[in-house]
């Protein structure tokens, strides 16, 4: 995202600043993916103030969505996040025994990421169309083949032309939609109609 997706979006919108960038984490679970993407987008916006971004995270489980909205994670769960990003975008727990060993995503990121309940098997989805990125990682493997193709078809309908679709590596072979071109393993892009 940092090296190709966001820079391409910025170049494409040069004539119509600000650059609106919309991302949907379609099986967001506890929000780690959404907040990781938020850190990358915040970094890009710090370089170019014209980047106007938001993220939607959805999941079927209200329990994991509650965790995502709290945005509090065990510090060891943040280990894969580069130290400089952790320093800028998380706050360490202090003071009470319950807050030791945890970190919370900073308010600036939490304001730009919203979460909602959504069952991917139950369209239509109350999600905007014309999205720049949709992440649907490691959930298709739990559906039947017919459900997989229906979910993919519904999801792709929300992507902008040229928008990016990311799935889990084990799911690359599942994605079969004539509107998508495979760019790399687990990475697809919506073709022009």
Description:
With 193 residues, the protein is α/β, with parallel strands linked by helices. The protein has helices spanning 5-12, 32-47, 62-70, 83-89, 107-110, 145-156, and strands spanning 19-25, 51-59, 72-74, 90-92, 102-105, 113-117, 131-136, 159-167, 180-184, 187-190. The radius of gyration is 17 Å and the shape is globular. The two termini are 24 Å apart. The model has no long low-confidence stretch (mean pLDDT 92).
Percentage of β-strand residues: 25-35%
User: What is the rounded Rg?
Assistant: 17 Å
| Shape verdict | globular
- Put simply, the count of helices is 6
Strand order of the largest sheet: 6-2-1-7-8-10-9
Q: How many runs of DSSP E, i.e. beta strands?
A: 10
* Topology pattern, helix = H, strand = E: HEHEHEHEEHEEHEEE
Mean pLDDT: 92
Low-pLDDT runs = none
Major sheet description: 7 strands, mixed
Q: Regarding quaternary structure, how should these chains be classified?
A: single chain
Distance between the termini: 24 Å
Fraction in helix? 25-40%
Global structural class = alpha/beta
